[in-house]
Design a protein that fits this description.
two-stranded antiparallel sheet; mainly alpha; 434 Repressor (Amino-terminal Domain); globular; about 110 residues; two-stranded antiparallel ribbon
Length: about 110
């Protein structure tokens, strides 16, 4: 039996005991994960370190959002409230930072 849908999103089901974030577990028959459950784990990025890395590259948060594909709201949550992000978002941010060169001489000009 297929679970009811709301706004084209599968309904959550009874969560196993080892589920890290129960609201993000869905049935596999809706295309989510292997073995019946998809676990989207979250990690916390240090917002101040992220701002420092942006400054070293001469990027704004809006530019990082555009380059990485992460929403500006997500980046704002990281910096201002220390909100955890999905591993996928963290990878996108890390990849965008790795692909953006550090501007020579700019790091020495930054105030610690």
């Amino acid at each position: 039996m297929t679970p009811p849908r709301r706004n084209n999103v599968p309904a959550p089901f009874a969560h196993p005991k080892n589920c890290v974030r129960p609201p993000l577990c869905f049935r596999a028959d809706d295309g989510y994960g292997v073995g019946g459950v998809r676990h989207e784990t979250h990690i916390t990025i240090d917002g101040q370190k992220l701002l420092a890395e942006l400054a070293r590259r001469g990027l704004s948060a809006a530019e990082l959002a555009r380059v990485s594909g992460v929403s500006p709201t997500t980046l704002s949550g990281i910096v201002s409230r220390g909100r955890p992000v999905t591993v996928r978002s963290a990878r996108r941010i890390a990849k965008a930072l790795a692909e953006t060169p550090i501007i020579a001489g700019l790091a020495e000009l930054l105030v610690a």
